[in-house]
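Two records follow; treat each independently.
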Amino acid sequence: MAATTPVIEIKNVSKSFGDNEVLKGINITLMEGEDLIIIGKSGSGKSVTIKCLVGLLTADEGEIKVFGTDITHASHSELNEIRSRIGFLFQNGALYDSMSVRQNLAFTLKHHNRGLAPEEVQNMIMEALESVGLEEAIDKMPSELSGGMRKRIGLARALIIKPEILLYDEPTSGLDTITSREITELMLSTQQKRKTASIMITHDMASAKLAGNKIMVLKDGKISAEGSYEELEKSKDEWVRSFFI
């Protein structure tokens, strides 16, 4: 049965930086278990949308509800509670270079769950690493990992808090075609296993085709089109269709 509960509702959100109007009244709804891809040229507002969504930026106008709470009026403690239910995978993996894989994962886990016993931390680290197939990398430093391995560890770190929503910002950037597909398939399998909703910002159309129930195209701060990969590939709008060539 299809999910009927929105985990994210963005209504008429606008955001400007000085005279630069980056978002111009966008609307996005994400349902439980749904995977949304957002594509668009550089500077179209994709990353700003994600930052507004988690309260790293404040929208100038509009409403952003996450798990039913309007974060534009949320307290600091409410924002932290919401963020504890969201996992992030950034463009570069965003691992701390001075920490081993074990320490990177433990740092994230303790930040979200301060009362965990050491053996619980260890068990959750191993579970997260097993989910991405990298148990043997537990004591390696980020500098010893390939680009694909760094992305896998970044995904493990996003998964370790057992999030209900995953946010990906260019997760396959800088990877070769085969590794990009492996990372995308890994993201999909873990999401399906955990029934996690996701939003992915990407320029990688092969990943978009694999990963999204729904694709939205941002143009000049507005949602220009939305639909499945197949629907948008056949769009009558030449600009929208240009992404799929």
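The next record belongs to a different protein.
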Amino acid sequence: MSDDARYYQRTILREELPSTILGETRSLRIYLPPGYNELLSYPVIYCQDGEQFFNFGRIATTMTRCILDADMEPAIIVGVDVNVATRTAEYAPEGDRHAAYCRFFADELLPYIENRYPIRAERSDRILAGDSLGGTVSLHLALAYPSLFCRVISLSGAFFASTREQILAAEDLSWLEMYMLIGLDEEEVKTERGTFDFVRENRETLAALNSKKAALHYLEKPGKHLWGFWQGELPAALHYFLG
């Protein structure tokens, strides 16, 4: 077997989860690591924009490579697909579907996954990951459900004033661990809501999180607001939490 072929010796399942809260069915992609054994237990990574994380981020191949070549702890990955038409409404804290999406995640998705797969019950074994607005909703899920989530991977998170207001309203965030990456070429990022300086917004959010004593690993690197940048940074982000 060639070295490249080894990285495809894993399982990716497709499942459909009917949601009463969202009033629709949500597609899921579930990665089971090489050597997966139901008698063992695993940490889990929940990825917003599931289809993109798997197709453009190549997270399944990256995870397998890290496990086989770098002795990283095996983990299950759950990619939660999103409808582009309602993505901002669900992921942005001011979106009209945001509260419902967060409830879906905590009250329907987690029980569904943890009833079917051998995932550890500690909140430190659940990692939330997202790019851009996916990073935003990942942080807001942790802020809304600190008993469930305490670890977040943010790839160029879209952190604006409404997010900082929630951070500053918290008494203490020393329980929160975040891996924050921002590209230095992200000073004029065009979005459906306008053009934003993601570098400045992330620096201001970093200051807010530091003021609340969150545990942060903050990186600024040359890079654009694209999967071409984030894909190459995923191994380091995964290693940060999984060793």
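Discussion point: The mean pLDDT is 95. How would you locate this feature using only the token line?
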